[in-house]
Design a protein that fits this description.
six-stranded mixed β-sheet; 8 helices; binds zinc ion; phosphatase activity; Pesterase_MJ0912; Ap4A_hydrolase; Metallophosphoesterase
Length: 234
């Protein structure tokens, strides 16, 4: 079994819970789609766990923002404040780790990218049918895994939408947003990640200790909204 995680956003409680489940499931390989840091209170510990446990890791916009590798003028004020806080907190070693990450990787028959396969450095958010239609032209692999919007979704090349799992058919291609470990935004506050087992791809959700993650955000002096939104899943 392979597990995919994304958008951890320095939420150690959510990451630990997902890793616990990954171990219980007997997962052999873990791939990470970026945004390890930003928003939450544990950037260093989350980087260390990802470094230790993930076979493949790519960068997200928040990882790049913390390194000053992408423009943060389009970030909202709360996100910006979290980026600046994380810059001060992050160790040199973890900074170097994030700095080595690329934006796109091919793994087995899968493509991994944080935002969009067509223009990964533009950090597009894929929500509309037309966008998915266009993105299917931008890659040739049977399945492209993405994160970034924090909203899990499975779409095939006929723009059919699936629920929480799909059996990959040889005559179809798929874009699969695996959702966010550390800051889900689909109205469900449970941590989200995905697994691949043979042809079966599953999006899984897990309850975790949201209260502790919120307390740490408040203690760190990060914006209150970042604590509140964890409980709302928004
Ligand atoms: Zn993110």
């Amino acid at each position: 079994m392979i597990a995919l995680i994304s958008d951890i956003h320095s939420n150690l409680e959510a990451l630990n819970r997902v890793m616990e489940e990954i171990d219980r499931l007997g997962v052999e390989r873990i791939w990470c789609l970026g945004d390890v840091v930003g928003y939450g209170a544990d950037p260093n510990r989350c980087c260390e766990i990802v470094r230790e446990r993930c076979e493949l890791v790519i960068a997200g916009n928040h990882d790049w923002a913390v390194l000053d590798k992408t423009d943060i003028t389009y970030f909202n004020p709360v996100a910006k404040e979290a980026v600046l806080w994380t810059r001060r907190e992050l160790s040199g070693e973890n900074r170097e780790f994030l700095d080595r990450l690329g934006l796109k990787l091919k793994a087995d028959q899968y493509l991994l990218v944080h935002s969009s396969p067509s223009r990964p450095e533009e950090w597009l958010y894929l929500f509309e049918r037309e966008q998915f239609e266009e993105e299917f032209q931008a890659f040739g692999e049977p399945v492209c895994f993405i994160g970034h919007s924090h909203v899990p979704v499975i779409v095939d090349d006929e723009l059919k939408i699936y629920g929480t799992g799909v059996n990959v058919e040889p005559n179809h291609r798929y874009i699969i947003n695996i959702g966010s470990v550390g800051q889900p935004r689909d109205g469900d506050p449970r941590a989200s990640f995905a697994t691949i087992e043979g042809d079966r791809i599953e999006i899984r959700r897990l309850e975790y200790d949201i209260e502790t993650a919120q307390e740490k955000i408040r203690k760190a002096g990060l914006p209150e909204f970042l604590a509140e939104r964890l409980a709302a899943g928004r």
